[in-house]
Protein: Cell wall hydroxyproline-rich glycoprotein
Organism: Stylosanthes scabra
Amino acid sequence: MAHHHHPILGLILFFLFTFSSLSTFSHAHFPIVEEEQVPFPNLRLKNAYVALQAWKHSIFSDPYNTTANWIGNDVCSYNGVFCAPALDDPSMDVVAGIDLNHADIAGNLPSELGLLTDMALFHINSNRFCGIVPPCLENFTLMHEFDISNNRFVGGFPSVVLQWPHLKYLDIRFNDFEGPLPKELFEMDLDAIFLNNNRFTSSLPSTLGKSKASVITFANNKLTGCIPRSIGKMKKLNEVIFMGNDLGGCFPEEFGMMENLNVLDLSDNHFVGTLPNLTGLKSAEIIDIASNELSGYVSESICELPSLKNFTYSDNYFTGEAPTCAASSSSSATGIIFNDSGNCLIGKKLQKKTKLCLSILARPVDCDKVCGCGEGPSSSSLPLEIKIKTSPKKKLINSAYRIVEELELELALLTSN
Protein backbone atom coordinates (compact mmCIF):
# COMPACT_ATOMS: atom_id res chain seq x y z
CA MET A 1 0.00 0.00 0.00
CA ALA A 2 1.15 3.55 -0.67
CA HIS A 3 2.61 5.41 2.30
CA HIS A 4 1.48 8.91 3.31
CA HIS A 5 4.61 11.06 3.07
CA HIS A 6 4.02 14.64 4.16
CA PRO A 7 6.48 17.18 2.63
CA ILE A 8 5.70 19.86 5.27
CA LEU A 9 6.53 17.44 8.05
CA GLY A 10 9.82 16.68 6.34
CA LEU A 11 10.68 20.38 6.32
CA ILE A 12 9.67 20.76 9.96
CA LEU A 13 11.79 17.80 10.97
CA PHE A 14 14.78 19.06 8.95
CA PHE A 15 14.44 22.44 10.68
CA LEU A 16 14.36 20.83 14.09
CA PHE A 17 17.39 18.70 13.25
CA THR A 18 19.52 21.80 12.69
CA PHE A 19 18.80 22.96 16.23
CA SER A 20 18.82 19.72 18.15
CA SER A 21 20.39 16.32 18.32
CA LEU A 22 18.33 13.30 19.18
CA SER A 23 19.07 11.36 22.31
CA THR A 24 17.72 8.01 23.37
CA PHE A 25 14.24 8.48 24.77
CA SER A 26 13.23 6.73 27.96
CA HIS A 27 10.05 4.69 27.70
CA ALA A 28 9.99 3.17 31.16
CA HIS A 29 6.26 3.71 31.39
CA PHE A 30 5.35 2.15 28.05
CA PRO A 31 5.24 -1.41 26.73
CA ILE A 32 8.00 -0.90 24.17
CA VAL A 33 8.27 -3.58 21.52
CA GLU A 34 11.61 -5.33 21.63
CA GLU A 35 13.83 -5.64 18.54
CA GLU A 36 13.08 -8.92 16.82
CA GLN A 37 12.19 -10.41 13.49
CA VAL A 38 8.83 -8.79 12.78
CA PRO A 39 7.12 -7.56 9.61
CA PHE A 40 7.86 -3.90 10.41
CA PRO A 41 10.42 -1.79 8.53
CA ASN A 42 11.91 -0.61 11.84
CA LEU A 43 11.36 -0.67 15.59
CA ARG A 44 9.90 2.85 15.75
CA LEU A 45 7.13 1.94 13.33
CA LYS A 46 6.41 -1.12 15.44
CA ASN A 47 6.13 1.07 18.54
CA ALA A 48 3.88 3.37 16.52
CA TYR A 49 1.68 0.36 15.78
CA VAL A 50 1.36 -0.33 19.51
CA ALA A 51 0.47 3.31 20.20
CA LEU A 52 -2.08 3.63 17.41
CA GLN A 53 -3.78 0.35 18.21
CA ALA A 54 -4.11 1.41 21.84
CA TRP A 55 -5.60 4.71 20.66
CA LYS A 56 -8.05 2.95 18.36
CA HIS A 57 -9.25 0.81 21.27
CA SER A 58 -9.83 3.94 23.37
CA ILE A 59 -12.21 5.41 20.77
CA PHE A 60 -15.92 5.19 21.66
CA SER A 61 -17.38 6.64 18.48
CA ASP A 62 -16.03 7.14 14.96
CA PRO A 63 -19.05 8.19 12.85
CA TYR A 64 -17.06 8.74 9.66
CA ASN A 65 -15.03 5.53 10.07
CA THR A 66 -11.84 7.56 9.97
CA THR A 67 -9.88 4.88 11.78
CA ALA A 68 -11.49 1.95 9.95
CA ASN A 69 -8.27 1.20 8.08
CA TRP A 70 -6.10 1.29 11.22
CA ILE A 71 -5.48 -2.41 10.70
CA GLY A 72 -2.23 -4.20 9.98
CA ASN A 73 1.42 -3.28 10.19
CA ASP A 74 1.53 -0.56 7.53
CA VAL A 75 0.91 2.32 9.95
CA CYS A 76 2.04 4.89 7.39
CA SER A 77 -1.05 4.05 5.34
CA TYR A 78 -3.47 4.68 8.21
CA ASN A 79 -5.92 7.53 7.65
CA GLY A 80 -4.61 10.70 9.25
CA VAL A 81 -1.15 9.27 9.95
CA PHE A 82 1.82 10.76 8.16
CA CYS A 83 5.36 9.46 7.95
CA ALA A 84 8.61 11.21 7.17
CA PRO A 85 12.34 10.34 7.30
CA ALA A 86 13.75 10.23 10.81
CA LEU A 87 16.02 13.08 11.82
CA ASP A 88 18.82 10.84 12.98
CA ASP A 89 18.49 8.37 10.08
CA PRO A 90 16.92 9.76 6.86
CA SER A 91 16.79 6.24 5.43
CA MET A 92 14.21 5.26 8.04
CA ASP A 93 10.58 6.33 7.98
CA VAL A 94 8.83 7.24 11.23
CA VAL A 95 5.39 8.50 12.23
CA ALA A 96 5.94 12.26 12.34
CA GLY A 97 2.42 13.63 12.21
CA ILE A 98 -1.24 12.91 12.94
CA ASP A 99 -4.15 14.91 11.51
CA LEU A 100 -7.64 13.84 12.54
CA ASN A 101 -9.24 17.27 12.32
CA HIS A 102 -13.05 17.41 12.00
CA ALA A 103 -13.49 13.65 12.35
CA ASP A 104 -16.05 13.91 15.19
CA ILE A 105 -14.30 11.07 17.02
CA ALA A 106 -15.14 10.42 20.67
CA GLY A 107 -12.51 8.91 22.92
CA ASN A 108 -9.47 9.78 24.98
CA LEU A 109 -5.69 9.91 24.67
CA PRO A 110 -4.06 6.71 26.00
CA SER A 111 -0.63 6.71 27.63
CA GLU A 112 0.77 4.60 24.79
CA LEU A 113 0.81 7.70 22.60
CA GLY A 114 4.03 8.58 24.39
CA LEU A 115 5.71 5.97 22.18
CA LEU A 116 5.41 8.33 19.20
CA THR A 117 8.69 10.06 19.96
CA ASP A 118 9.16 11.44 16.43
CA MET A 119 5.89 13.38 16.46
CA ALA A 120 6.20 16.94 15.15
CA LEU A 121 2.58 17.67 14.24
CA PHE A 122 -0.51 16.67 16.23
CA HIS A 123 -3.85 17.98 14.93
CA ILE A 124 -7.08 16.57 16.39
CA ASN A 125 -9.31 19.65 16.44
CA SER A 126 -13.10 19.49 16.19
CA ASN A 127 -13.63 16.06 17.72
CA ARG A 128 -15.09 14.78 20.99
CA PHE A 129 -11.92 13.69 22.74
CA CYS A 130 -12.23 13.99 26.49
CA GLY A 131 -10.30 13.48 29.71
CA ILE A 132 -6.93 15.01 30.42
CA VAL A 133 -3.87 15.47 28.25
CA PRO A 134 -1.67 12.64 29.60
CA PRO A 135 1.78 13.43 31.05
CA CYS A 136 3.35 10.78 28.80
CA LEU A 137 3.13 13.22 25.91
CA GLU A 138 6.25 14.87 27.33
CA ASN A 139 8.06 12.50 24.94
CA PHE A 140 6.78 14.63 22.04
CA THR A 141 10.00 16.63 22.29
CA LEU A 142 10.04 17.35 18.56
CA MET A 143 6.53 18.81 18.62
CA HIS A 144 6.12 21.84 16.37
CA GLU A 145 2.33 22.22 16.02
CA PHE A 146 -0.12 21.03 18.68
CA ASP A 147 -3.82 21.58 18.00
CA ILE A 148 -6.40 19.92 20.27
CA SER A 149 -8.98 22.70 19.98
CA ASN A 150 -12.74 22.19 20.00
CA ASN A 151 -12.80 19.02 22.08
CA ARG A 152 -13.83 18.18 25.63
CA PHE A 153 -10.54 18.07 27.49
CA VAL A 154 -10.57 18.97 31.17
CA GLY A 155 -8.16 19.61 34.00
CA GLY A 156 -5.59 22.29 34.51
CA PHE A 157 -3.48 23.84 31.79
CA PRO A 158 -1.78 20.91 29.97
CA SER A 159 1.65 21.60 31.41
CA VAL A 160 3.19 18.85 29.31
CA VAL A 161 3.47 21.39 26.47
CA LEU A 162 6.00 23.32 28.54
CA GLN A 163 8.43 20.43 27.97
CA TRP A 164 8.52 20.84 24.19
CA PRO A 165 11.44 23.09 23.20
CA HIS A 166 10.51 23.37 19.52
CA LEU A 167 6.81 24.13 19.85
CA LYS A 168 5.69 27.09 17.70
CA TYR A 169 1.92 26.70 17.44
CA LEU A 170 -0.33 25.93 20.42
CA ASP A 171 -4.10 25.73 20.05
CA ILE A 172 -6.15 24.47 23.02
CA ARG A 173 -9.21 26.73 22.62
CA PHE A 174 -12.80 25.53 23.02
CA ASN A 175 -12.16 22.98 25.75
CA ASP A 176 -12.81 22.94 29.50
CA PHE A 177 -9.34 23.60 30.88
CA GLU A 178 -9.37 25.54 34.13
CA GLY A 179 -7.17 27.10 36.76
CA PRO A 180 -4.24 29.49 36.29
CA LEU A 181 -2.09 30.06 33.24
CA PRO A 182 1.54 29.08 33.93
CA LYS A 183 4.06 31.89 33.76
CA GLU A 184 6.44 29.63 31.81
CA LEU A 185 4.06 29.57 28.85
CA PHE A 186 4.98 33.10 27.87
CA GLU A 187 8.69 32.40 28.14
CA MET A 188 8.53 29.79 25.36
CA ASP A 189 9.47 30.58 21.78
CA LEU A 190 5.91 30.32 20.48
CA ASP A 191 4.50 32.16 17.47
CA ALA A 192 0.79 31.50 18.09
CA ILE A 193 -1.06 30.86 21.37
CA PHE A 194 -4.81 30.16 21.31
CA LEU A 195 -6.33 29.85 24.80
CA ASN A 196 -9.81 31.20 24.27
CA ASN A 197 -13.11 29.64 25.33
CA ASN A 198 -11.91 27.66 28.30
CA ARG A 199 -12.35 28.22 32.03
CA PHE A 200 -9.00 29.68 32.95
CA THR A 201 -9.01 31.80 36.08
CA SER A 202 -6.42 33.98 37.84
CA SER A 203 -4.65 37.08 36.66
CA LEU A 204 -2.34 37.29 33.68
CA PRO A 205 1.27 36.40 34.54
CA SER A 206 3.77 39.25 34.58
CA THR A 207 5.88 37.18 32.15
CA LEU A 208 3.37 38.00 29.38
CA GLY A 209 5.74 40.64 28.03
CA LYS A 210 8.44 38.02 27.41
CA SER A 211 6.36 36.25 24.79
CA LYS A 212 7.57 36.37 21.19
CA ALA A 213 4.17 35.36 19.84
CA SER A 214 2.53 37.24 16.99
CA VAL A 215 -0.99 36.08 17.91
CA ILE A 216 -2.47 35.43 21.37
CA THR A 217 -6.14 34.92 22.22
CA PHE A 218 -7.39 34.95 25.82
CA ALA A 219 -11.04 35.49 24.94
CA ASN A 220 -13.98 34.08 26.86
CA ASN A 221 -12.27 32.79 29.96
CA LYS A 222 -12.57 33.99 33.55
CA LEU A 223 -9.34 35.94 33.80
CA THR A 224 -9.24 38.74 36.36
CA GLY A 225 -6.99 41.57 37.43
CA CYS A 226 -5.07 43.92 35.19
CA ILE A 227 -3.10 43.49 31.99
CA PRO A 228 0.60 43.47 32.95
CA ARG A 229 2.49 46.54 31.83
CA SER A 230 5.12 44.24 30.37
CA ILE A 231 2.81 43.75 27.38
CA GLY A 232 4.37 46.87 25.89
CA LYS A 233 7.56 44.85 25.32
CA MET A 234 5.86 42.46 22.91
CA LYS A 235 7.23 44.00 19.74
CA LYS A 236 6.27 41.04 17.51
CA LEU A 237 2.62 40.98 18.56
CA ASN A 238 0.19 41.44 15.65
CA GLU A 239 -3.08 40.34 17.22
CA VAL A 240 -4.26 40.06 20.82
CA ILE A 241 -7.81 39.25 21.96
CA PHE A 242 -8.87 39.80 25.59
CA MET A 243 -12.63 39.97 25.03
CA GLY A 244 -15.11 38.31 27.37
CA ASN A 245 -13.13 38.14 30.62
CA ASP A 246 -13.28 39.91 33.97
CA LEU A 247 -10.19 42.02 33.41
CA GLY A 248 -10.21 45.53 34.81
CA GLY A 249 -8.24 48.55 35.81
CA CYS A 250 -7.40 51.47 33.60
CA PHE A 251 -6.74 51.09 29.90
CA PRO A 252 -3.08 50.02 29.61
CA GLU A 253 -1.12 52.91 28.15
CA GLU A 254 1.58 50.46 27.07
CA PHE A 255 -0.55 49.49 24.07
CA GLY A 256 0.53 52.80 22.60
CA MET A 257 4.04 51.38 22.25
CA MET A 258 3.03 48.47 20.01
CA GLU A 259 3.64 49.66 16.48
CA ASN A 260 3.13 46.23 14.87
CA LEU A 261 -0.25 45.49 16.45
CA ASN A 262 -2.99 44.96 13.83
CA VAL A 263 -5.89 43.77 15.98
CA LEU A 264 -6.64 44.83 19.56
CA ASP A 265 -9.80 43.54 21.25
CA LEU A 266 -10.48 44.45 24.87
CA SER A 267 -14.26 44.30 24.62
CA ASP A 268 -16.62 42.96 27.27
CA ASN A 269 -14.42 43.49 30.32
CA HIS A 270 -14.37 46.04 33.14
CA PHE A 271 -11.79 48.61 32.06
CA VAL A 272 -12.28 52.08 33.51
CA GLY A 273 -10.85 55.55 33.15
CA THR A 274 -9.99 57.43 29.98
CA LEU A 275 -8.19 56.37 26.85
CA PRO A 276 -4.42 56.87 26.95
CA ASN A 277 -2.23 58.03 24.11
CA LEU A 278 -2.52 55.38 21.40
CA THR A 279 -0.89 57.19 18.51
CA GLY A 280 1.84 54.55 18.44
CA LEU A 281 -0.63 52.00 17.05
CA LYS A 282 0.46 52.77 13.51
CA SER A 283 -0.46 49.34 12.15
CA ALA A 284 -3.77 48.92 13.98
CA GLU A 285 -6.64 48.00 11.66
CA ILE A 286 -9.23 46.83 14.20
CA ILE A 287 -9.68 48.24 17.70
CA ASP A 288 -12.60 47.01 19.80
CA ILE A 289 -13.05 48.37 23.33
CA ALA A 290 -16.84 47.95 23.50
CA SER A 291 -18.73 47.02 26.65
CA ASN A 292 -16.41 48.40 29.30
CA GLU A 293 -16.72 51.36 31.67
CA LEU A 294 -14.42 53.77 29.85
CA SER A 295 -15.20 57.48 29.90
CA GLY A 296 -13.86 60.84 28.80
CA TYR A 297 -13.12 61.98 25.30
CA VAL A 298 -12.32 59.98 22.14
CA SER A 299 -9.76 62.07 20.32
CA GLU A 300 -8.96 62.33 16.65
CA SER A 301 -5.50 60.91 17.35
CA ILE A 302 -7.12 57.47 17.60
CA CYS A 303 -9.69 57.86 14.85
CA GLU A 304 -7.05 59.09 12.42
CA LEU A 305 -4.62 56.22 12.93
CA PRO A 306 -3.09 55.56 9.48
CA SER A 307 -4.15 51.89 9.11
CA LEU A 308 -7.46 51.98 10.98
CA LYS A 309 -10.45 50.23 9.38
CA ASN A 310 -12.80 49.57 12.29
CA PHE A 311 -13.00 51.25 15.69
CA THR A 312 -15.74 50.06 18.04
CA TYR A 313 -16.14 51.89 21.34
CA SER A 314 -19.83 51.30 21.94
CA ASP A 315 -21.41 50.58 25.33
CA ASN A 316 -19.07 52.67 27.42
CA TYR A 317 -19.48 56.06 29.10
CA PHE A 318 -17.68 58.40 26.73
CA THR A 319 -18.99 61.97 26.90
CA GLY A 320 -17.28 63.37 23.85
CA GLU A 321 -15.72 62.43 20.54
CA ALA A 322 -13.80 64.30 17.88
CA PRO A 323 -15.75 65.02 14.67
CA THR A 324 -13.58 62.53 12.76
CA CYS A 325 -14.73 59.80 15.14
CA ALA A 326 -18.44 60.35 14.71
CA ALA A 327 -20.10 57.28 13.24
CA SER A 328 -22.10 59.43 10.82
CA SER A 329 -18.91 60.72 9.22
CA SER A 330 -17.51 57.27 8.51
CA SER A 331 -17.80 54.95 5.53
CA SER A 332 -18.22 57.26 2.54
CA ALA A 333 -15.54 59.81 3.42
CA THR A 334 -12.83 57.67 5.02
CA GLY A 335 -13.96 54.09 4.62
CA ILE A 336 -13.43 53.58 8.35
CA ILE A 337 -16.24 52.04 10.37
CA PHE A 338 -16.93 53.62 13.77
CA ASN A 339 -19.44 52.47 16.36
CA ASP A 340 -20.15 54.93 19.18
CA SER A 341 -23.60 53.71 20.27
CA GLY A 342 -24.49 53.13 23.91
CA ASN A 343 -22.33 55.92 25.34
CA CYS A 344 -23.13 59.29 26.93
CA LEU A 345 -22.83 61.44 23.83
CA ILE A 346 -25.34 64.29 24.07
CA GLY A 347 -27.39 64.85 20.95
CA LYS A 348 -26.62 61.49 19.40
CA LYS A 349 -29.01 58.58 18.95
CA LEU A 350 -28.79 55.23 20.70
CA GLN A 351 -27.07 56.56 23.81
CA LYS A 352 -27.44 55.70 27.51
CA LYS A 353 -29.91 57.51 29.72
CA THR A 354 -28.49 60.60 31.39
CA LYS A 355 -29.05 59.32 34.91
CA LEU A 356 -27.16 56.12 34.15
CA CYS A 357 -24.30 58.14 32.71
CA LEU A 358 -24.04 60.40 35.74
CA SER A 359 -24.16 57.46 38.15
CA ILE A 360 -20.84 56.31 36.68
CA LEU A 361 -19.29 59.62 35.67
CA ALA A 362 -19.82 61.08 39.14
CA ARG A 363 -17.26 58.62 40.48
CA PRO A 364 -13.76 59.74 39.41
CA VAL A 365 -11.19 57.07 38.64
CA ASP A 366 -7.64 57.18 40.01
CA CYS A 367 -5.67 54.88 37.75
CA ASP A 368 -2.74 54.80 40.16
CA LYS A 369 -5.00 53.18 42.74
CA VAL A 370 -7.33 51.15 40.55
CA CYS A 371 -4.62 49.04 38.97
CA GLY A 372 -1.35 48.63 40.75
CA CYS A 373 -0.33 45.38 39.09
CA GLY A 374 2.25 44.57 36.47
CA GLU A 375 5.58 46.10 35.80
CA GLY A 376 6.85 48.46 33.18
CA PRO A 377 7.32 52.12 32.39
CA SER A 378 5.05 54.82 33.67
CA SER A 379 3.47 57.35 31.36
CA SER A 380 6.33 59.74 32.00
CA SER A 381 8.81 57.27 30.54
CA LEU A 382 6.97 56.46 27.32
CA PRO A 383 9.02 57.01 24.15
CA LEU A 384 8.82 60.48 22.65
CA GLU A 385 7.69 59.11 19.32
CA ILE A 386 4.32 58.05 20.74
CA LYS A 387 3.53 61.36 22.40
CA ILE A 388 0.48 63.01 20.89
CA LYS A 389 1.58 65.50 18.29
CA THR A 390 -1.31 67.91 18.41
CA SER A 391 -0.99 71.54 17.41
CA PRO A 392 -1.98 74.26 19.95
CA LYS A 393 -4.95 75.09 17.76
CA LYS A 394 -6.23 71.50 17.83
CA LYS A 395 -5.68 71.30 21.58
CA LEU A 396 -7.80 74.43 22.03
CA ILE A 397 -10.56 73.03 19.83
CA ASN A 398 -10.55 69.69 21.68
CA SER A 399 -10.74 71.47 25.03
CA ALA A 400 -13.69 73.48 23.77
CA TYR A 401 -15.48 70.31 22.68
CA ARG A 402 -15.01 68.79 26.12
CA ILE A 403 -16.32 71.86 27.95
CA VAL A 404 -19.37 72.13 25.71
CA GLU A 405 -20.18 68.44 26.09
CA GLU A 406 -19.88 68.59 29.87
CA LEU A 407 -22.23 71.60 29.97
CA GLU A 408 -24.69 69.85 27.68
CA LEU A 409 -24.67 66.79 29.91
CA GLU A 410 -25.43 68.87 32.99
CA LEU A 411 -28.15 70.77 31.14
CA ALA A 412 -29.74 67.50 30.00
CA LEU A 413 -29.88 66.31 33.60
CA LEU A 414 -31.52 69.55 34.77
CA THR A 415 -34.04 69.32 31.94
CA SER A 416 -34.90 65.73 32.76
CA ASN A 417 -35.65 66.76 36.35
About this structure: Confidence is low (pLDDT under 50) at residues 13-30, 32-37, 372-404, 413-417. DSSP finds six helices and 23 strands in the chain. The first strand starts at residue 59 and ends at 61. The radius of gyration is 27 Å.
